[in-house]
């Protein structure tokens, strides 16, 4: 290879790592300098944003999120939290009672576009900006912004002095440009949940009292001046002195930090390329956090192997906030839990590194693709960590069944903030989203689901995949047509219910009549156990799939003819007399989320009250 060609190819392959070739994406480069006053919980910030318009469109407006403005009496978040029928107990009416020194705010002091002042209007949690100079396609523009802000008392996710005494959980804290993508602007007001942002690079300097330990998204650049466990050097700080912490975070879509005077800081290596950082208060938590640390490291190893390599060199698990919330390269979790609870939340939030922080779906629109997929992977990882023998997805599937029974279910296409109840949002996003993947494994086969998830990661990392992007990956991987599955299971609340209607002797053979009771059609594995101890799976593909799965789950599988979905019944013949048959079960793997299992078995099982584990969602 000639040298010049090599240099060109090398340069190309560097940029290809963050390729945006499949669909254009905007690009942001943030530089922020923040001076924090721990006496008032207020800070002043200077922000330079270099914004690249990779779209084919000319922009005449831009929008910024001002998330902290949600923590004010009368805000949309406040009113929604008080008027929804099943309020989040962490919020309820707490915002309505905040005094001026307790609220959160982000005030814009000045805004310039390419050096010239701009007019703007603050509308709740969104800054609306009408440009004087248009942003033409494929151009780069600079926005300079000065702001001041106040960290509210801890209500939801961010805030000061949380219930466990962590001084500052600083998330959703700076004016953040809204994402503009192939579907247009996403200037969502901050009402309850879920985020979406522009991929880019952050360079952040935070100056505050030297007695605070800071944990953050990104790599600390001046560890030798900081100390506090970031370096082996013992660095002393004078009382009353202010320290500037300098972090850089490449290829992320947000930046979070936290600060506390009592943080203990542990570092645990996952492997040569990844360090886990743990920040927690040095009280009675030490033992349980120390026990959690190697399990968290093991969780990263399992995820790397099953879902694709975590690409950053660092991840921080930080005590703070009000439960668990995911951010790029870090999470805020509450720390006062037993080992099981602590590992569960640390693992869940860490897995969001894959489903949201690397595969950056628009969470507002597709909360099931980040919460659901995270829950699915969490179930697998926890099952491995604690060497559980039971089906890791069973409780999640039962939680979905309970939602169906409640009558509160809404389609997964519902915007995360617009579900009528918090319960419908939670179970749809976390449980039905997990069921979606588990059941996809039933439709296309476990092997294809596993290879498909890796392919999804590799082809869509650092991008904004949508449901159709995932569908195309799974179709290519399996060779099956899957429109129908996305349309019914994501777009509607149609449910699955198949039953064994009749088993009749037909000469020396046995006819089995299956009926479709639910509105949603599915391919079927019908497993017959014979009295001689052998087993045979009768596999009925759905005609719309235009093919069959190749999964080898059962010792013998007989491929039957397709079932066209409009036929209410389907009959197949077993080549043995009915006296040979011990049992017939529709999908004994129970990956298919049939909402009524009673009619799935022949002879029918004695009736017992359904025993579903309590719904557990986060
Ligand atoms: Zn989550």
UniProtKB/TrEMBL annotation:
Which positions are annotated as binding Zn(2+)?
Answer: 348, 352, 371
Matches recorded under SUPFAM superfamilies = Metalloproteases ('zincins'), catalytic domain
Question: Ranges for the Peptidase M1 membrane alanine aminopeptidase domain?
Answer: 334-488
Name its co-factor(s).
Zn(2+)
Q: Which CDD domains match?
A: M1_APN_like
Q: What is the annotated signal peptide range for this record?
A: 1-19
GO terms for molecular function, please? Answer: metallopeptidase activity; zinc ion binding
* Cofactor: how bound: Binds 1 zinc ion per subunit.
Q: Which UniProt keywords apply?
A: Metal-binding, Signal, Zinc
Name of protein: Peptidase family M1
User: Which species does this protein come from?
Assistant: Dyadobacter koreensis
């Amino acid at each position: 290879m000639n040298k010049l060609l090599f240099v060109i190819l090398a340069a190309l392959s560097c940029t290809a790592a963050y390729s945006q070739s499949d669909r254009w994406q905007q690009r942001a480069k943030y530089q922020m300098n923040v001076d924090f006053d721990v006496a008032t919980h207020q800070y002043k910030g200077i922000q330079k944003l270099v914004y690249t318009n990779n779209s084919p469109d000319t922009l005449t407006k831009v929008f910024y999120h001002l998330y902290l403005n949600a923590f004010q009496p009368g805000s949309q978040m406040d009113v929604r939290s008080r008027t929804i029928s099943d309020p989040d107990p962490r919020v309820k009416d707490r915002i309505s009672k905040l005094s001026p020194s307790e609220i959160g705010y982000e005030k814009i002091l000045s805004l310039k576009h390419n050096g010239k002042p701009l007019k703007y209007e603050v509308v709740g949690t969104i800054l609306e900006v009408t440009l004087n100079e248009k942003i033409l396609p494929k151009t780069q523009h600079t926005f300079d912004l000065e702001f001041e802000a106040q960290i509210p008392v801890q209500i939801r996710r961010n805030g000061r002095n949380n219930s466990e005494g962590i001084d500052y959980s600083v998330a959703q804290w700076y004016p953040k440009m809204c994402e503009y993508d192939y579907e247009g602007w996403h200037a969502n007001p901050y009402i309850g949940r879920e985020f979406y942002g522009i991929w880019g690079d952050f360079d952040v300097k935070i100056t505050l009292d030297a007695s605070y330990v800071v944990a953050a998204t990104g790599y600390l650049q001046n560890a030798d001046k900081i100390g506090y466990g970031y370096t082996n050097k013992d660095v002393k700080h004078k009382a009353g002195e202010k320290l500037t912490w300098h972090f850089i975070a490449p290829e992320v879509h947000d930046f979070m930090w936290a600060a506390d005077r009592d943080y203990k800081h542990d570092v645990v290596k996952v492997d040569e390329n990844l360090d886990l950082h743990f920040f927690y208060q040095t009280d009675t938590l030490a033992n349980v956090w120390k026990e959690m640390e190697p399990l968290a490291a093991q969780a990263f190893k399992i995820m790397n192997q099953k879902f694709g390599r975590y690409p950053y060199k660092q991840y921080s698990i930080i005590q703070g906030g009000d439960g668990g919330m995911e951010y790029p390269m870090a999470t805020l979790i509450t720390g006062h839990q037993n080992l099981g609870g602590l590992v569960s939340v640390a693992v869940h939030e860490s897995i969001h590194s894959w489903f949201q922080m690397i595969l950056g779906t628009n969470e507002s629109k597709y909360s099931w693709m980040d919460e659901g997929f995270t829950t699915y992977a969490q179930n697998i990882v926890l099952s491995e960590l604690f060497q559980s023998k039971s089906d890791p997805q069973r409780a999640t599937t039962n939680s979905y069944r309970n939602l169906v029974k409640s009558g509160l279910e809404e389609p997964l296409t519902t915007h995360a903030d617009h579900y009528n109840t918090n319960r419908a949002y939670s179970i749809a996003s976390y449980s039905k989203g997990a069921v979606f993947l588990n059941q996809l494994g039933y439709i296309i086969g476990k092997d294809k689901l596993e290879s498909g998830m890796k392919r999804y990661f590799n082809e869509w990392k650092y991008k904004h995949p949508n449901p159709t992007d995932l569908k195309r990956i799974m179709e290519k991987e399996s060779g099956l047509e899957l429109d129908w599955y996305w349309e019914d299971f994501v777009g509607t609340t149609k449910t699955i219910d198949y039953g064994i209607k009749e088993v009749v002797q037909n000469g020396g053979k046995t006819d089995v009549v299956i009926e479709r009771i639910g509105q949603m059609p599915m391919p079927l594995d019908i497993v017959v156990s014979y009295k001689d101890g052998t087993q045979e799976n009768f596999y009925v593909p759905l005609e719309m799939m235009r093919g069959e799965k190749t999964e080898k789950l059962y010792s013998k599988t007989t491929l039957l003819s397709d079932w066209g979905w409009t036929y209410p019944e389907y009959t197949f013949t077993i080549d043995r007399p009915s006296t040979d048959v011990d049992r017939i079960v529709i999908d004994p793997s129970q990956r298919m989320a049939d909402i009524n299992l009673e009619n799935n078995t022949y002879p029918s099982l004695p009736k017992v009250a359904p025993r579903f584990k309590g719904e557990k969602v986060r």
